[in-house]
């Protein structure tokens, strides 16, 4: 019983001070998910900042430096930042072993939804004749939360318990529907 109390006291200390050097987080199952989530959120932020800087940099260069139309700059910026995001999140954030042929289509579906959202923001800013950086700010602050949940629970989910199967199909159907409406309305030229 004394060893149980001592073990309990050590576990309580871990919550306040963190595990001692060399200790296994597996000894505290309740803490393991916190450590995992903390690591994922940290890497998600690092990868996200890299992708965001890529997006903002390419947008700035294409619009200000090359005098491209905002939607064209947005397309290139979003494509390049999507590549940075996919590989960074697959390898660093979620350390996923899901095969590319399984993860990439789901990732691209979510990226497509994000692209449509970003395009709407950029187009709205252009219509309102506001500075383009407002569109960049809206996109780069609102999309990350949705992306973390979708990437974690759908795109890079390795275990069946982590996976929400209906959402992947739903996102793909919604994306296809939105693209077809945008093409029909002439808002998206292919």
Question: Summary?
Answer:
With 190 residues, this protein is mainly α.
Care to describe what's here?
The chain is an all-alpha fold and 190 residues long. The chain has one domain (33-184). Helices cover 79% and strands 0% of the residues. It is built from six helices and no strands. The chain has helices spanning 2-17, 29-65, 70-93, 100-128, 132-155, 165-184. The longest helix has 37 residues, at 29-65. The termini are far apart.
| Poorly predicted segments | 1-17
Strand content: under 5%
Portion of residues in helices? over 70%
Cα separation of the termini:
71 Å
Rounded radius of gyration (Å): 21 Å
Number of helices: 6
Question: Class by helix and strand content?
Answer: mainly alpha
Mind sketching the topology for me?
Elements: H1 2-17, H2 29-65, H3 70-93, H4 100-128, H5 132-155, H6 165-184
Task: List descriptors.
6 helices; disordered N terminus
């Amino acid at each position: 019983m004394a060893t149980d109390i001592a073990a309990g006291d050590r576990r309580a200390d871990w919550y306040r001070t963190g595990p001692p050097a060399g200790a296994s987080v597996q000894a505290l199952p309740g803490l393991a998910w916190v450590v995992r989530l903390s690591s994922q959120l940290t890497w998600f932020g690092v990868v996200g900042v890299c992708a965001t800087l890529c997006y903002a940099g390419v947008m700035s260069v294409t619009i200000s430096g090359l005098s491209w139309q905002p939607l064209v700059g947005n397309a290139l910026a979003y494509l390049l930042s999507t590549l940075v995001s996919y590989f960074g999140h697959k390898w660093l954030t979620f350390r996923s072993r899901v095969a590319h042929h399984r993860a990439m289509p789901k990732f691209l579906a979510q990226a497509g939804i994000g692209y449509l959202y970003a395009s709407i923001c950029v187009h709205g800013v252009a219509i309102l004749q506001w500075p383009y950086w407002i569109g960049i700010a809206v996109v780069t602050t609102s999309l990350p939360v949705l992306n973390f949940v979708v990437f974690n629970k759908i795109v890079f989910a390795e275990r069946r318990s982590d996976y929400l199967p209906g959402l992947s199909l739903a996102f793909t159907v919604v994306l296809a529907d939105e693209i077809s409406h945008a093409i029909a309305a002439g808002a998206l030229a292919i």
